[in-house]
Amino acid sequence: MLTAILITFGMTAFVVILALRSFLETGSDHVDGDKVPCDAQDGLADGGAGDDKP
Fold this sequence. Notes:
By secondary structure, the protein is mainly α. Helix content is 46%, strand content 0%.
């Protein structure tokens, strides 16, 4: 019984870490694959970072 509890705890922690990493890398928690409009304050509006071409 203890083994099942530990495996469940480990898998839950793994999924939470994956979700947190995905959120931190993308800045969004949407998982449906559609593009999400970004706010101007997060620096990703109008094409994303790196569009500062003269």
